[in-house]
């Protein structure tokens, strides 16, 4: 049952990424600018040198730069989460280790390429190799986080629990 649930979550996340890539560039920009407005509210609380440095750029250049940063980080975040979910799925099927990392990376890279290919046909969207690299970087970060947490905390706890409950025969 646990395996089925995590597989469903994985498929839903694939769907979420696909759904986001079907949005036009205008819709995507509106979402990014909503986040930008929240950042702007935080900016208004800045003082001194931080505020002066930020103000040295023209206003429209600042907003375009921040919008781009927000959009690219959203790409990376989607694939970071995807890599974590795929890692969890494969671990549920006892697929662990270095070889599994290659599978996870391949799945994420393949889906990033498919996603960019799909965006060619979405009005107002473009496809770029840079976005594939950003997606893949997010996936590598997700894999690194998952493996670090798993082997540093989860696997260590399991080993200690087995050691305590071990009964020699």
UniProtKB/TrEMBL annotation:
Cite the Pfam families for this sequence.
VanZ
**InterPro entries recorded for this chain?**
Phosphotransbutyrylase, VanZ-like
Q: Where is the VanZ-like domain?
A: 7-149
Where, by residue number, does the polypeptide cross the bilayer? 76-93, 100-120, 132-150
Name the UniProt key words of this record, in alphabetical order.
Membrane, Transmembrane, Transmembrane helix
Coiled-coil stretches noted in the UniProt entry, renumbered to this chain: none
Name of the molecule in the record: VanZ family protein
Keyword Membrane assigned to the entry: answer is yes
């Amino acid at each position: 049952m646990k395996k089925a649930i995590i597989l469903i979550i994985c498929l839903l996340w694939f769907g979420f990424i696909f759904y986001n890539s079907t949005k036009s560039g205008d819709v995507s920009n509106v979402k990014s600018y909503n986040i930008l407005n929240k950042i702007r509210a935080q900016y208004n609380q800045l003082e001194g040198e931080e505020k002066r440095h930020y103000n040295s750029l023209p206003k429209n250049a600042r907003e375009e730069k921040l919008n781009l940063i927000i959009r690219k980080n959203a790409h990376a975040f989607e694939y970071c989460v995807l890599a974590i979910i795929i890692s969890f799925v494969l671990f549920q099927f006892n697929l662990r280790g270095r070889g599994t990392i290659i599978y996870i990376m391949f799945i994420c890279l393949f889906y990033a390429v498919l996603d960019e290919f799909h965006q060619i046909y979405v009005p107002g969207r473009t496809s770029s190799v840079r976005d594939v690299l950003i997606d893949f970087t997010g996936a590598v970060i997700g894999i690194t986080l998952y493996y670090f947490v798993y082997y540093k905390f989860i696997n260590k706890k399991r080993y200690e629990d087995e050691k305590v409950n071990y009964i020699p025969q």
